[in-house]
Each structure stands twice: as structure tokens, then as C-alpha cells.
Amino acid sequence: MKHILLIVGSQLHINELFLAYIRSQYLHHFGESALIFYVRDGDNELPFKIEKYAKHTKIITIVASDANFSTIAKILSTLSNDTLELKDTTLAPSRARLEAKDSFVVELENAKINLLKAIPTQILPPFLLHLEDKMLSFNLLDIDKNSALSVLKELGVVHNVQIIASNILENLVYVKAISQKFGQLDGFLAEVKNNFVRHFIASDNIVEFIVSRLKEIKASITLAESCTAGLGACLLGQIPGVSEIFAGSVISYANYIKNIWLNVDESILNEHGAVSAPCVEAMATGALNLCGADYALAISGIAGPGGGSLEKPVGTVFIAAASKQSVYSKKINLSGDRDYIRKQSALSAYAFLLSSFWSEICAFKDEEKI
Length: 370
Prior knowledge:
Elements: E1 3-8, H1 10-13, H2 16-30, E2 35-39, H3 46-56, E3 59-65, H4 66-79, E4 84-87, E5 90-93, E6 97-100, E7 103-108, E8 111-118, E9 135-141, H5 145-159, E10 161-169, E11 172-179, H6 185-195, E12 200-201, H7 206-217, E13 221-225, H8 231-237, E14 250-251, H9 255-262, H10 266-271, H11 277-291, E15 295-301, E16 316-323, E17 327-333, H12 338-361, H13 363-367
Parallel strand pairs: 1-2, 1-3, 3-8, 13-14, 13-15
Antiparallel strand pairs: 4-5, 6-7, 7-8, 9-11, 9-12, 10-11, 15-16, 16-17
Helix pairs in contact: 5-6, 7-12
């Protein structure tokens, strides 16, 4: 194993909001998730576990609650035949590398170990270790994963790069490229761009990519959401500086709100229903007119677990993408629980925006010389 994460302390384990923050910060720092172990308070086996992990893992990150931080600092000091001392208000082994309050690094066996103190509602101290692997990640849109992999693996052999790919959506493939010894990531990436014109998204986050492109072309976006209830807008809100291209959106859960706020005609709702192509097209057009944006997305579907029918089972979702000149819609069939379906729906809408308006949003990117 290259890296693992230990989260120590029962008060951290029951705090899902703070756990999500820890996992998110870890992913942002390392660029990939780790194998995570949860260790309860007072686990007498913890010294032996740390010693075992250190023999087989290069990087160990231990996030400990306030109540466990000093105990683990003492364990690390004992295992590394060191003594504890107070370093700028942080109790740490004397030979530890301390670069920030409540975060230090020690070496044990084959591993480097970073211990951090985590206090809910407070900012997490910085992670101090880094993966040695050189890697990059990107997305491929509107292409079959197996077809893409056959090309990517051939390029990987030429440039000594390992390829890992996964379907985020049916039409969106997330790719991670890891340089092996003497690998050539730059050459690999250049050939990927040439082989996947109109498919290549130079980011591991397509929403972040869209925001950057909209800023580049000085265009704005809005949304009209039903079953996702604001998840699409939430994805935008996670991107720093998004206010430059996003002024607001509409959550139109009930049909009368679709009618009053978005001007979706009652005849559409009565004849086709809220989960239909005509409805999402009208929602997107209404959002454009209401917000004055350049592009709009609309989402309406059946997220479950109830509400489905033979004609429209759970997972039936319609999405639309509109500009001031055109509007397009698409039916997608998703699987999973309510939360997974809603998240897929929101991301699918952004992917559909790129599919529908690639030549407008990504025109300059396609013209760049590689």
C-alpha cells in the first residue's frame, strides 16, 4: 500500500459532516482517496497496528481527535525510540518535523507518518506528506470506456504510463494516468489530446472545467431543478470565483412553481407531466428568461424510492440544456438509491451542456496547438 488514512476517535466517527470534510481535504491534497481505517478510543492494539502498517506502507496519515492526539504522539515517540517535547504548543517527538500547529511528521520503519489533531467545527491542520508518484487525471466525454481504454493503453505502453479508468456516468469516463519509471506524462497527454478531440476534458472535475470555460468566453449559466433540489447549483457553488458566471438558479419542485416562476405552460404539465422532455425544455427556457443567463440547465426526474411507474420507473430523468438560440433535451435512465440518482442527474446535466454546446464553450480549447 502506498498510503493509508487512520481516523482515531469515536467523536470523529459519529460526525459525518466533519468526516466528509476530512476525506475531502485528503482527496484534494493527495489527488486520490486512501484506504481508511477507523480506530475507536482506547484501542490497546493501536501501537501494534501502527507498527504493522509502517512495514508495508510508505505514507501513513493519522487524524486524531483532541482526546487522542497526545496519546498517539506518545506512541509514535516510543515506537521511534524518541522522547516527547513541546514544540510551539504542539506535543511531539523531539526528532519530528513540525511545519504547522497540531501537525507533525515522524519516520518509522519504511513509512513517513503525519499526525494531525482534528477538532470538529475548526479548520483541519495541513497535511504534510506528498505522494511520490507523478500522475494526472482527466475526463473523456461521449465515448465508450472500452474503446477509449484500447487507445489509452497503447499510448501508455509507448510512454510508460499506467492507466486507470472508470465510468463516472455512462458517457463520462474518468481517467488517471500514473507515470512509471522513466514515464513520459507530457508526451502521453499530448497524444491523448490529439486522439480524443471533442472528447478530452483537461480536468478531473467537469464542473470546474465548465466554469473556467464560461469565464474564458465571458458567458453565464443558470439552472432550473426539480428532483435534484439544488444539487446542480451546489456543484457550481463548490468552485471558487463562480460568482463571475453564476448569479442564481431556481428550485422548482412543485408543478405550480414551474408554472408561476418558469412559465412552464399548464398544458405541458397536464399532457406530458413534469418528468418529460417538453417540461425540462420549458424549464430551461424559463430559467434563461428569468435570470438573463447565456446558458441554462434543467433537471426533472424520479429519484425514488417511490413515485415510479411502468412507463416512468424510478431513475427516469430528463435533462435539458439551453442557450438563447437553441434548447436540447435528453432522457436518461439511472440506477442506485435516491442520493446516487440525484447526484448522477446533476452531473449528467453538466455533461449534456458540453455535449450540446461543445463548439461554443470549448471552441478556443479545440483550436489550441498541442
